[in-house]
Amino acid sequence: MAATKREREYARKRQEKWEQRRAQARARRQRTFAIVAIVAVLALVGGGLVVANLGNAADPADSPTPQAAGDCPAASTGARSGGDLPDPSAAQDRTWTATLAMCAGGVESQVVLDLDGAAAPQAVASFVALADQGYYDDTACHRLTTSGIYVLQCGDPTGTGSGDPGYSYGPIENAPDDDVYPAGTVAMARRGDDGESMGSQFFVVYQDSTIPSDTAGGYTVLGTVTSGLDAVQAVADEGVEGGAGDGAPTTPVIIEGVETQ
C-alpha cells in the first residue's frame, strides 16, 4: 500500500474512532439528563421521594454523578491503567496533532495541540498512547494556578493530583534553558526534584510563566496549543475555588476525549 493511501486509511480510522467517542459522550449526557428529569418528576409527584445510588453500585468511584441539563458531565474518577510505557520511537520523530474535547461551565470547546515527537519523543509517545486508549476520556483538570505561574493541570483520572498510568518515566526532555514557558506551552508535570517521575499528568500554560528549575532540571515541553487557548483562559478568569491562587478551578473542567493524528 502506498504511503499516501496508508495515511488516508489511518486518518479515516482515527476519524471514525473520534466520532464514536463523541457519540458515546453525547449518549452518556443524554442518559444523565433523562435520569435527572425523571427524578425531578418523581420528587414532585411522590412528595420527596429519594432515589439513591444512580451509578454503578459495584464500583461507585467510577460512576459519574448526574448533572442538570446544560451542565458538563461529571468526571469518572478512579485509578486507571495505561498499560506499558511505549518506546520513544513510537513518536515517529514527527509532529502530532492532539484535539482535546473539553467542557467547562456547560460550554464545550476544542483545544488543539501540536506535539513535538522529535524534541520530546518519550513524552509524546506516552501521551499519544494514553490518548488512543481512552485513558484521558471523562477526566477532570484538577489544578489551576493563578499567582506566580499560570497553568491548568490535567491528566489524572483520580482527580487528586497523585494518580499515574501505572508507570513513570524520564529523563526530562526539551525543557527551556531560561525557565520561561510562554503562553500556549504544554508540558509534563512531575514530582519535585525527580526527573524520572513523569506519567500522565500535563499542564497547559495560559499566560507567560517563569517556572524555576529544581535539582532535576526543568519540565518536559511536549507541545504547544495552536487553537482553543481562550477556553483555558476563560477557566482561569473564573479563578480557583475559595479565592486561592492554587487549587481546584472554580469552573470544573472535563476532558471528554482526546483525538490524535
Spans of at least 5 consecutive residues with low confidence: 28-69
The share of residues in helices is 25-40%
- The CATH homologous superfamily of the largest domain corresponds to Cyclophilin-like
With helices defined by DSSP (H or I, 4 residues minimum), what is the helix count?
3
CATH architectural grouping of the largest domain:
Beta Barrel
Class from secondary-structure proportions: alpha+beta
Major sheet details: 10 strands, antiparallel
Q: Going across the biggest sheet, name each strand in turn.
A: 3-12-1-2-10-7-8-5-4-11
Question: Per DSSP, what share of the residues sits in E-state strands of 2 or more residues?
Answer: 15-25%
Summarize the structure.
This protein has 261 residues and is of the alpha+beta class.
Walk me through what this model shows.
By secondary structure, the protein is α+β, with helices and mostly antiparallel strands. About 16% of the residues have low confidence. The protein has 2 domains: 60 residues; 173 residues, Beta Barrel (Cyclophilin), CATH 2.40.100. The longest helix has 44 residues.
State the main characteristics.
261 residues, alpha+beta, Cyclophilin, 2 domains, two-stranded antiparallel ribbon
